[in-house]
Structure prediction request, 729 residues.
Amino acid sequence: MGHRRDIEGLRALAVIAVIAYHAGVPFTGGGFVGVDVFLVISGFLITSLLIREWSETGGISLAGFYARRARRLLPISATVLAATALGSVIWLEATRLDELGIDILAASGFAVNFVLAGRGTDYLAAELAPSAIQHYWSLAVEEQFYISWPALILLALVGGRRLATLVIAAVTAASLAASITLTGPQPTWSYFGLHTRAWELGLGALLAVIGTTTDRVPGWVRATLGWAGIAAVIVSIGTFDRVEHFPGTWALLPVVGTLLALAAGDDNRLGPSRALHLSPLQWAGGRSYSLYLWHWPALVIGAAALDRVPGPTATLALIALAVVLAEVGYRFIENPIRRSPRLIPRPGRSLILGAGLLTIGAIVGLAVTTVDRTARTGVIAAAPEPITAPPTAGDSKVEPPKPDDEPATVLSSSNSNPAATADDATTSTTTTTSTTIPPPTPADALTLAAILAALDTELLPDNLRPSILEANGDTSSLYGTGCHQYLEERAAEGCVFGDTDGDLTVALWGDSHAAQWFSAVDRIAEQRGWRLIAITQGGCPVIEVLTWNRSGDAVFDHCGPWRDNVIETFENEGVDVVLLGQHYGLLDAATRASVGAAVWEEQLPLLLDRLDRLERPMTPILLIDSPDPPEDVPTCLAEHPTEISLCEPRSPGNTERAVAQVIRTVAAERGLGAIDPRPWLCVDDRCPVVVGDLLVYRDSHHLSNTFVSWLTPVLDAELGPFIDSLRVP
Prediction:
């Protein structure tokens, strides 16, 4: 197949779009569609070559095909993986190395897209920083396509070109249908999966099959459509920053645009080839593969080396570094190996080379997972004093409410914290009934003493529980039951915990900030004889608001049906009390800013009214949110092991403070319970991240399960007597 300079120009457009998108260049928020352009080009080129080989020789050499792919793709790919591994070990945070090693291992087996898709559907992993080789997902999709496509085309061509066309069309149509129907309910698997991307390669393949037919279309028509295609790609790059559920239907615009540009032809003087032939685009297009591979590690590792998000100047310098590396790779690795006279005549040698490079990549990945760059301070910290257990259900001094009484109010013990701020103190109000709040307990004093002692500590203890490398997985056991959900429209079933034969049913409901309290609530429920129903979902609010998830880059429209289904489940289960918890950092889909206090002021009463109107009303207790650290705490501690106070949450932000105040106000007006954990975690505006040998936060905003377990008696002293008082005598 002759060299097509228009394809080189399209490759340049695609790689420039991707790099600009990753670099945060204004008006390139849809630059990720550059990958779609690459996929269409790949499907067109590969299928064109296979059909030409069939036409000229009457067959297709699979060994020759895979040998060409190995020479073209693997040498520079393996080089970038090895260089990224080395740079990451030197500069990347210690907490990111284990995941990176797994990614490199998966990339060496053409499977990193599966790893990233699985990670994207795991809310635990949603908080992780992006992988330095995350962009290898598109290579995995192409390589998976290459594994099966030649054999499929070979079998189809046995029945003639028409049969091949029908087979390609059928595969393309099936994949497009899957992309349109699955992208909404399965956004991450659809984004990273071959099953929802194959149609993009397939449309390119269809153009290759019917290419002689398109040549019959008048040149001026093809030229006009070609320019329209380039315009479609550029519009996609400039406007797709708020597109939801991609690829799906939206991907048709850049994909069809690329097809039209390809169909215009390379020698059509009226078509876009005139622009695509420009020397800068030809240079970038020739090096597009190396540019694509180098730019993302340069940006990710560069940010870590600079210890900050790079500004425009630093970003430009990192992109320049990627350009230099791409040029070196193109001249000394890509071209010499691809055109090697020793490899081309003997496909076996190329296949052996490819197998060796894949093996080396796997070894490098395994090696990275074994690297431990955790700083040691030599400090061995003592565990904080065990908190004195509160009275048991039988010893409770709380008076049961009279039938005519309004619901009791149970609030946090901030009045027992002599160093609490005035804002915190507003949470302490008297109850409106004969049900009284328990007086300050020894548990309060022990918590305060541990927090005060932690404020004087700047050294990270070597015996930290959990360690900073294990912190992300230190979650409640709810995560392993299927009752903490992600991207689901229906509530999980069978989520019964605590004392399953208890005479009072308590529910725990909300997002991951409700789930973080599960271990404590479950233990309390078991000890006090409550039947516990726990259903939570990552990123789903309890109030009626449509949210956008930054990690998934998607609108979470599944949360509405899920909320309705959860309430129906609670009603069927006979829930008496429901604990409601939600992260105040969830983002409003309309503004992509944290859900504001005005939304809470409008929607929280509506939710409470809905619960009250049920055939069997539930008593709500509102769990006020825990503080948000400024960044991922384990990562911060890895970077500042001798200045751990730099990682602390400080005074709450305006939204956090305003939302908490709305919740306190609504609870007070309705005589409802509200639990504020901030006085257990902070003194004034300081909230230590390490207490004794305990890590308080497992990431940038969740409490570690180990610390929550230590706090269980405090929550029990606050929550237990009040809920026990609701039992019918």
About this structure: The chain has two domains: 5-369, 408-724. DSSP finds 27 helices and twelve strands in the chain. Confidence is low (pLDDT under 50) at residues 391-440. The first helix runs from residue 5 to 23.
